[in-house]
Specification:
332 residues; alpha/beta; six-stranded parallel sheet; 9 helices; 41% helix; 17% strand; binds ligand 6V0
């Protein structure tokens, strides 16, 4: 029984109207930060949560639902069953095994590979037209794994990659120069991790290239400071994890911004993990790593041709090599 009566002469709703649905797989610290940021920003009409831990899953769903009076209207559902994700436009995967103290990254990767073998195929079957966004670490290699396991075209499999690293980078530059981080155009590309590459040559503030600005203002060329900033970016995640146990808020905002770019067809540029073969002299193998990509409703629309110095290009190729070496050990 409906609360409202239709007005006279009203037609039924158009059959073409449909909801925007996002599924979030893994409701740990990261999955929930992403879900709640998406909720507050009204990016989706429906959010479906999935996890193997049924109690935590239901608890998180209820907790979010209880905020309905303060949020844009969004249907929130949860289930341990993948049928809950049917017809998703975007599937965000944050499920991951946690590193056991003393465990090698490769061993962790093998465990996450086993986990992805269970998670990705049903997600791909339930939402064959979805865009897959991988957040679980090591994100570049797992994005490659998700691409292989889903059978999706490469434009529909994206890793959150260095979008977060780049936002840390922009914050630190803005902090150093006392600016608004939103005015700082700056990219970290390559691996989300130790071999990431800071593109100093293309940093600009309000359209002004930063390196020549520093020279013109006769601020001593602060190579040391710049390198320190990149080091802080690389170590940022480790520091937050050592202090609070996990990272959540920044990755939540970072992935929500990617979700909006994709689902609202923003055609904006984001450094995310994409199939990098053929770009910047990367050949031999099929590495996924972050490059400045244009995102829209069909996923990755293309990669922008940022000018790289010879040194930056060399570092990027080394980063690709690092990722390919790990990929080679996967056996898929
Ligand atoms: P967490 O809090 O341990 O949450 C992981 C969740 O995954 C838990 O709720 C598990 O129950 C769930 N899970 C495990 N197996 C499955 C399964 N088969 N199906 C569904 N759910 C499952 O970890 P946290 O949320 O802190 O981190 C999640 C992942 O994100 C980790 O791999 C992190 O390393 C990674 N991050 C990636 C970042 C990036 O920039 N790409 C940033 C931060 C964290």
């Amino acid at each position: 029984q409906s609360f409202f009566k239709p007005i006279q002469g009203a037609s039924p709703p158009p059959s073409t109207s449909r909801n925007t649905k996002i599924s979030v797989v893994g409701v740990g610290n990261v999955g929930m930060a992403i879900a709640q940021t998406i909720l507050t920003q009204a990016i989706a009409d429906e959010i479906a949560l999935v996890d193997v831990n049924a109690d935590k899953l239901r608890g998180e769903m209820l907790d979010l639902q209880h905020a309905a009076a303060f949020l844009p209207r969004t249907k929130i559902s949860s289930s341990v069953d993948y049928s809950n994700t049917v017809g998703s436009d975007l599937v965000i995967v944050t499920a991951g095994a946690r590193q056991i103290p003393g465990e090698s990254r490769l061993n962790l990767l093998q465990r996450n590979l086993a986990l992805f073998s269970k998670v990705i195929p049903p997600l791909a079957t339930k939402s064959p037209d979805a865009i897959l966004m991988i957040v679980s670490n090591p994100v570049d290699v797992l994005t490659y794994v998700a691409w292989k396991l889903s059978g999706f075209p490469s434009n529909r499999v994206i890793g959150s990659g260095t979008n977060l690293d780049s936002s840390r980078f922009r914050f630190l530059i803005a902090d150093h120069l006392d600016l608004n981080a939103q005015d700082v155009q700056a990219y970290i590309v390559g691996e989300h991790g130790d071999s990431s590459v800071a593109l100093w040559s293309s940093i600009s503030v309000g359209g002004v290239p930063i390196l020549s600005f520093l020279e013109r203002q006769q601020i001593a060329y602060e190579k040391h400071t710049l390198e320190k900033i990149h080091k802080e970016v690389v170590e940022g995640a480790y520091e937050v994890i050592s202090l609070k146990g996990y990272t959540s808020w920044a990755i939540g905002y970072s992935v929500a911004s990617l979700a909006r770019a994709i689902l609202r067809d923003q055609r904006s540029i984001h450094p995310v993990s994409v199939l990098a073969k053929g770009f910047y002299g990367i050949d031999g193998g099929e590495p996924f790593l972050s490059l400045p990509a244009q995102l829209g409703r069909s996923g990755v629309l293309g990669v922008t041709n940022v000018h790289l110095t010879e040194e930056e290009e060399k570092k990027l190729q080394e980063s690709a090599k690092t990722i390919l070496e790990v990929q080679a050990q996967l056996g898929i």
